[in-house]
Design brief:
The chain is mainly alpha-helical and 457 residues long. The chain is built from 18 helices and no strands. The chain has helices spanning 2-24, 27-39, 43-71, 75-85, 94-125, 134-146, 148-168, 174-199, 202-210, 219-232, 239-244, 253-280, 293-304, 308-341, 346-367, 383-410, 413-419, 425-456. The chain is globular. Residues 1-10 have low confidence and may be disordered. Bound molecules: 4-fluoro-L-phenylalanine (PFF). The site of 4-fluoro-L-phenylalanine has 16 residues, from helix 1, helix 2, helix 5, helix 10 and helix 14.
Length: 457
Amino acid sequence: MEKRKMHGTWSSRWTFILAATGSAVGLGNIWKFPYITGENGGGAFVLVYLLCIAVIGIPIMMAETMLGRSGRQSPINTMRDLAVEAGTSRAWVAIGWMGVLAGLLILSFYSVIAGWALNYVFAIADGTFVNATGATVESYFETLQANKYEMIQWHSIFMLMTLAVVIGGVTKGLGNAVRILMPVLFVLLLMLLGYGMSEGNFTAGFNFLFNFKFDLLTWDGVLVALGHAFFTLSLGMGAIMAYGSYMPGDAPIGKTIITVAFLDTAVALVAGLAIFPVVFANEALEPGAGPGLLFVSLPVAFGSMSGGVVFGTLFFVLISLAAWSSAISLIEPGVAWLVESKNFSRLSANLLLGTIAWTLGLGTVLSFNDWAGEEYHILGVTFFDFVDKLTANFMLPIGGMLIAIFAGWFMKKSHVRREMSHESPEMFELWRALVRYISPTLVALVFGFLVWDMLIN
Ligand code: PFF
């Protein structure tokens, strides 16, 4: 009996770690982190991003998990019940609503980018990039971007893959898939890192990531780093709250969350260390290439290494799978609410939300061709950039800040302490100080400086 009980608890704590890591590790780590680092000048940006993970991301992730575990429902209903229990305004359910909306907006473009990765699986397997130069890969990528029908096709396939899993229920099979997926992905990244060290310009790549050139960093860059800390940890929109309800009551939240954040950060840094040496070794490639950075740099590496067709195919399969396990968590909060409160079946809830996200995704597809021109820009950027910035730089940090304020100031301390009973008194007080004072203030300060910067310029 004792043994079985222990095993059950152990495996559930790991189920949470695996599900949360599956959600956190995705396109954000391998695609987005390198390209925004490139656009924002490298080192100083990376440092700010790491600080945001440590002082803002981890404490808020603990808070979001704690809320999910005490509510044990969809984020919208969890927030309503917890607000009632705390004797405060029901308006806090806005955190849940904003999260559902942010999830759909993110999923809309996430699916398009994951569609590129699916396309690359077949392109690499076909030998398209064998001995390719930076310029050839670039022209392949440009042709793909110009072809909206092709992009819509892959976007649709990825969306259907996501819905299929969520219809079946998120917990089933996900744990096992992630258990195999993550280690293989990591080994392949290490292999690419080895390639970058021996064939690429590793010193230039390393220096770019870790030499802190603060003069290159703008307030806008600081905001992007902050937003990315939320995006990469799947934070501020209810995904982690929804997964928090899987967590057994007696699992230590702090240790568990630190494990997830550590794994997520490690994948991003290794991805950066694998990609930039290739970029700097190739004249045709540049760090500030934007959203295409991953898709133009890595095929060059795979094209010139022995066994590159096999490893390259496998690598893009894994990126697609990592994106898949993240996409699931983007739609789950909305699906859970429709099923819980509106009598939807999982199937109809998925069809409704999936159709909305798919349709919004067409805007991202067109951002790279028909709507690329300035006449289609929203506030000076393309539809894709607009949705990306609106969610990562505003909705997630604001959602996260509200989560911190709710957990730190409105929930009864005794209730919070009960949920966090595994934390030592020192760790608990440190965490509480962070979510009460430090994390929300820092988020507010970044917004404040941004406005100030806009006003004086
Ligand atoms: N964390 C994911 C990534 O880095 O790719 C993206 C993401 C998933 C963001 C789920 C938000 C979320 F709720």
